[in-house]
Amino acid sequence: MAEAQPSSSSQPERRKLLGPGLLLWLLSLVTGAIAGSIVSGLRADGEVDASSFSLIAYLAYAPATLLALGGTYFILAASVRTAIEAASGGATDSREVLDALERINDRLLLSDTAKRIAYRQEDLDVLRKTIREDIAKHRFDAALALIAELAQTYGFKEEAEGFRDQIAGARAAEIESKIDQALQRLEDVLARHDFERATAEVAKLQRLYPESVRVAQAERRVEQSLAAYKQDIEHQFLDAQKRGDDERAMELIKEMDRYLTPQEAAPFREIARGVIGQLRENLGMQFLLAARDEEWVRAVRIGEQIIREFPNTKMAEEVRGKLDLARERAAHQQATSSATSG
Questions:
Q1: Nearest 5°: CA angle at 254, between 249 and 257?
Q2: CA dist., res. 38 & res. 60, Å (int)
Q3: How far apart, in whole angstroms, are the C-alpha atoms of residue 20 and residue 106?
Q4: Residue 221 neighbours by CB distance under 10 Å
Q5: Which DSSP category does 313 fall into?
Q6: 10 Å Cβ neighbour count for 330?
Q7: DSSP codes joined into one string, 157-201
Q8: Which burial class, exposed, middle or buried, applies to 36 when counting CB atoms under 10 A from its CB (0-12, 13-18, 19+)?
Q9: How many whole angstroms separate alpha carbon 40 and alpha carbon 57?
């Protein structure tokens, strides 16, 4: 069966559709080249951030894309018109019409693929630039999500592993910096001899950074600092006792009682008893002398110290019986002194 030729009247109609279509495609190529030049210039300058560069790139290619779509519309319209005329003239059967429609669909798919290929390099450049910015700003989780896209969508698996190594290094450096700061704070706490807080700080560091060798050594550092402090207060105590500075020795006894174990304090027990007894006797004598000389303000201060330092002794009981009268006379003495000076 001979194929029927399209009527001569339909050919001008097809040309009216094909002509604008080809012209729009030509304009699309020209504007696409211009857009490519603009985008390449911006990428070379490097002055535009990743998000702005992406927006500018899509806007630059938008006219070329629209012109290409317009040209495709006219060309497809001409193809459809030809297919319909062929079907109505009996030149082709329904199968040929379906074949024509499939060819139209293939052209549309080819257009989408062409667009993806055209934007591929720009998308990769933006993706890489954004990954580097996220790493520099320590947004590691966001960077890892983009790195996965770089490997899975674009196939750059080796490059993706390089970025992951950078993140691992940056995270390690960040952790080391935090450990440095924490260990410096620990040294400040040790300088104040606050060993309970120091122990708590070390436990916290061990929970946060269990694999750090430096953190593992911090516990030993606290033990060494405590041992050195114990030795220091022992030497100070013996020195104060030799100089007869009973009040300073008494302060150091309290400090030793706080930090030394019973076994560690045993060698100093007899000396401490002597210091305590001597201090108690000295304070008692000072209280009696202050009361005799009617220095009631001083007598009250010494009496309160005796009760505070030796609350369960017979001397403290005796002082309590005299302290109310001493306070009353001290108040009267201070009032008289204020009136006289006024």
A1: 120
A2: 8
A3: 21
A4: 16
A5: S
A6: 19
A7: HHHHHHHHHHHHHHHHHHHHHHHHHHHHHHHHHHHTT-HHHHHHH
A8: middle
A9: 9
Give, to the nearest 10 degrees, the angle between helix 157-191 and helix 94-136: 30
With a cut of 50, say whether residue 341 has pLDDT above it: yes
Q: What is the pLDDT of residues 166-206, one digit of tens each?
A: 888 888 888 899 999 999 999 999 999 999 999 999 999 99
In angstroms, the CA 276 to CA 185 distance is 37
The full length of the chain comes to: 342
CA distance 175 to 37: 44
CA angle 248, 250, 254 (to 5 degrees): 115
Count the Cβ atoms, other than its own, within 10 Å of residue 183: 18
How far the first Cα of the chain sits from its last, in Å, is 139
pTM over 0.70: no
